[in-house]
């Protein structure tokens, strides 16, 4: 084999390898209908694709008006498409889950909402959607909360336990994906940015805590980027202006009987130069 033909052969084999990487879910009996979790999280210009069975989300940098968020886990079908709806059996893996189900009356501190009874692969389709609404509650400010969903066999489907992962960088380090489970990781954990000290924020906003920090960011529209880079909205020269604006807002809320509370449950207070007067607070009924 001459040098030119050799490199043509190598390129062809590499192309075949990449193509085979795209999705390899193993062998199955032709009569079986199997389901598995899979969400695409990468698509390259060369046609390579990557998949995951995990969603990681943080409410940090989202305004307080965003009280919940919806994510979908995709259930893929390995088998024949049918002309009728077929129910999916999805349960919560209680051993790996830290969240509880939300209910406005019985469990307002719960972390998720979903309707297990409506999950299906519809007629003419080769996939189903498992939608979950996650609540922005107090728990995720302290820890990363987890919801793990598990597919189980029923009268319509068996479950594909594992399949080969697509690795878009190399065909030698491909891993195996668990097709039976989908994991959601939800959090809202704040950490004090280094520039809080650089701009002497304690002198204007008071001592840092996550509740105060989140309120300030929401009021001014600051993001973590603004606190990370000197080119952001937060600068030492503008701190007196920000402190006056914050004092004005806290005072307005106090005067209207809707004071802002700090992490310890007390009214949010600023340093003496920008002190808020709470002496005449009459709480709204």
UniProtKB/TrEMBL annotation:
Entry protein name: DUF4843 domain-containing protein
Organism annotation: Odoribacter splanchnicus (strain ATCC 29572 / DSM 20712 / CIP 104287 / JCM 15291 / NCTC 10825 / 1651/6)
Classification lineage: Bacteria, Pseudomonadati, Bacteroidota, Bacteroidia, Bacteroidales
């Amino acid at each position: 084999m001459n040098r030119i033909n050799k490199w043509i052969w190598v390129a062809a084999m590499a192309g075949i390898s990449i193509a085979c990487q795209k999705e390899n879910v193993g062998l199955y009996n032709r009569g079986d209908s199997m389901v598995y979790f899979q969400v695409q999280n990468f698509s390259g210009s060369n046609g390579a694709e990557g998949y995951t069975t995990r969603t990681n989300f943080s409410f940090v940098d989202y305004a307080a008006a965003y009280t919940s968020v919806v994510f979908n886990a995709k259930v893929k079908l390995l088998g024949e498409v049918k002309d009728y709806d077929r129910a999916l059996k999805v349960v919560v893996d209680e051993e790996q889950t830290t969240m509880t189900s939300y209910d406005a009356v019985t469990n307002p501190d719960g972390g998720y909402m979903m309707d297990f009874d409506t999950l299906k692969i519809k007629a003419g389709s080769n996939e189903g959607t498992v939608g979950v609404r996650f609540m922005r509650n107090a728990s995720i400010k302290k820890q990363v909360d987890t919801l793990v969903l598990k597919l189980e066999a029923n009268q319509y489907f068996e479950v594909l336990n594992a399949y080969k992962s697509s690795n878009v960088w190399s065909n030698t380090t491909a891993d195996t994906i668990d097709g039976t489970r989908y994991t959601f990781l939800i959090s809202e954990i704040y950490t004090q940015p280094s520039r809080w000290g650089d701009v002497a924020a304690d002198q204007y906003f008071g001592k840092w805590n996550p509740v105060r920090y989140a309120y300030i960011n929401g009021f001014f529209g600051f993001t973590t980027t603004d606190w990370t880079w000197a080119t952001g909205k937060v600068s030492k020269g503008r701190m007196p202006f920000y402190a006056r604006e914050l004092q004005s807002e806290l005072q307005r809320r106090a005067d209207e009987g809707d004071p802002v509370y700090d992490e310890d449950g007390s009214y949010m207070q600023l340093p003496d130069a920008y002190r808020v007067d709470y002496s005449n607070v009459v709480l709204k009924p």
